[in-house]
Amino acid sequence: MKFRHLLATTGIVAAFAATSTAAQTLVYCSEGSPEGFDPALYTSGTTFDASSHTVYNQLVEFQTGTTNVVPGLAESYEASEDGLSYTFTLRPDVQFHSNDLFTPSRPLNADDVIYTFERQMVEGWNGEYFNSMGMGDLIDSIEKVDDMTVRFNLTRPEAPFIANLAMDFASIVSKEYADAMAEAGTPEMLNQRPIGTGPFNFQDYQTDAVIRYAANENYWEDDIPKVDNLVFAITPDASVRLQRLQAGECHVMPYPNPADIDSIRSNTELELKEQEGLNVGYLAFNTTQEPFDNPVVRRAINMAIDRDAIIDVVFQGTGRVAKNPIPPTMWSYNDAVEDYPYDPEQARQMLEEAGVTDLSMNVWAMPVQRPYNPNARRMAELIQEDLSEVGVDVEVVSYEWGEYLERSSELDRDGAVLLGWTGDNGDPDNFLGVLLSCDGVGGANRAQWCHEPFDELILEAKTLTDQADRAQLYEEAQVVFKEQAPWVTIAHSTVFMPVRAEVEDYIVHPLGGHIFDDVSLAE
Amino acid sequence: MLKYILSRLITFVPTFLGVTLISFAFIRVLPGDPIIVMAGERGMTEERYQELLQRFGYDQPLWRQFWDYFTGVLQGDLGTSFVTNRPVWGEFFTLFPATLELSICAMIFAVVLGIPAGVIAAVYRGKFFDRALMSTALVGYSMPIFWWALLLIIVVSGWLGWTPVSGRMGLLYFFDDVTGFMLIDSLLSGQEGAFASAVHHLILPSIVLGTIPLAVIARQTRSAMLEVLSEDYIRTARAKGLSASRVNGLHALRNAMIPVITVIGLSVGTLMAGAILTETIFSWPGIGKWMVDSIFRRDYPVVQGGLLLIALIVMLVNLTVDILYGFINPKIRKR
Predict the structure, then answer these.
(1) Nearest beta carbon to residue A16 from set B84, B165, B172
(2) Which pairs count as long-range contacts for A179-185, CB under 8 Å and 24+ apart, including other chains?
């Protein structure tokens, strides 16, 4: 991507080349190239880091390091009593960035918010997240109450709506910029040279190599960002990223190789930040097929698998055994749920009592590495070994990833499937509703598990607006889940971020994004 | 000579057709539905699936998809990336200079070291130097690029700190792309130290990418030299009292160069394949890394368009070598 004339207008050259001693430049060795800079069009975290987490803001945002939703471009919001409408009051005097193509004539107002969503509500919109979160069906209309007030009218009460608005696809874009670019016949500039309200002002992208940002000096939050320049040095190989970090070519890197964790810990120039990931890895039975339609059999298998050994071998100790389908960092996590102990003896007995003898089954192992399962093949082999102890004969099967995803959701699929989930918006419904509701059967509900008492709880929780009330229902739902055991909950993995020692206040974000608003460099 | 060039050009046509077909088929025989992979664990509704199928044109029969692609190619339209929505053509030419610059430097490294090494080995045939050189060449030839690159990074950049770990240019330098060649652009920018930084960044990737061609060229030079050195006219040259350096350097090397040039031409294909790994490791923003990303993203237009362009370049280089060969060796063009 060539952005001629950019340099002449920005003065960033001086910042980089001559006075780099005075200006603080934070370099992040990112893992890949962004697909573009319009977060509404894409689904990958790499793209979000380069766009929604730097250039943009949302009406409400996730507080860094938590899944709590806090005010963003909206100072406050109010839900109507029936839960059918949400009214947002916008923050005054929020300035959009400018570049050599565009200078905003006014601060953020309701038109920008309405434009942001209405462009996605059109038929055939190509943004995967907006569509897959069902936003098109959920939003009935968006009203401009006045210049600084916007009301969303919903077709049904849905509590996770607020968390959805904190997601990347809901980043607020400038209507004025979109109009100007449409008029100039270059609407693609929205995706190539983003204009937002975020802490960093997009400067330049050299395809596959470097992305440059300058601090937004007019940022609406005081004293943010802390550094003057932010640079993404795209470095796809994890070993090379680590070498660059050690050599001081960058300050922060994501996704280290698990094998390097120990050496990073022992390096005094580096610091290893860690945080439990917002994910879960599981083994899902097909609860519509014999003998897995019987909860006793499912419980027995739960007790036959040594998950501590899996954490040691597959996760090399960097994770924890899961007992609930939602991760412990998420609100409404029910710590009182009692996990199944590892007890092959009792498991064998339970299988016998259920009349299950000579059981042979398939265990599906994913062909790819995912955050919630770094080595599914190895995990499946461990499960195979454990189950042979209780007289269950396991065959490990695998397919190409696309095939795997497709076949594993088929209703008459055999055996049990290894899979997992990484949360999108920190809302329990994003796990329990997506993965375990009757609605998800034949789709993301790989256990094909439709259990009415559970379904009623999560459907009701979705309609309430009070978080404490919702949490109570979700806690109950987790008890039902455990008792019914449609999955073997296996693990929540840990996310590691090595940073250089001079990096201050970097917080690992549980939702997986990499956020540099508060980060500074020690002199 | 004209007839010879024409006959080479005519063979170009079926090769081009074949490459178009292969580049089209290649990504489609990979298992996995790109739309399902795109949706990931979440999955998507049947309605949405059909909509995307239609958008990407996959609902058409294969022959139809190929026809659309082929007629597009003939009109110079390689399609638009599914992911970035930018023309494949444009993306290719933004990134190609980086690959070309790296390949040229790698080739210079291979030729400058490979030819003298081969000559010396041939002259001292069977001696220690010859054996040492040829076993090193064998090691170089069988070296896994990935491992070799990481080893060099760890030792040269990590322990010794002599070169940067990866990238094309120090992050402190920031200037506009003019030619896309960092060595030239850094000079044009007038920024102090930028050119040195570009050179520094080129050293390790050039060594890594040039290692296999270096080994091949050294071995080829040696065997071609040995063959020539046993010819009668060399014996005659020696007999008439010419100095060893004149015999080896002038009479032998000149004739030994013919097969070496062919090998250099053929190495272009090796360089393109090697560039994919080298670029990924060294975070080098060229077409190799671009292709790898596109394969993982199942970005059909980019994969098929990129493959086609790379194949065309290799074909053009081979054609040029063939023609050059005809100039150097009159026997060939008369056949």
Answers:
(1) B172
(2) A180/A101, A180/A102, A181/A101, A181/A102, A184/A101
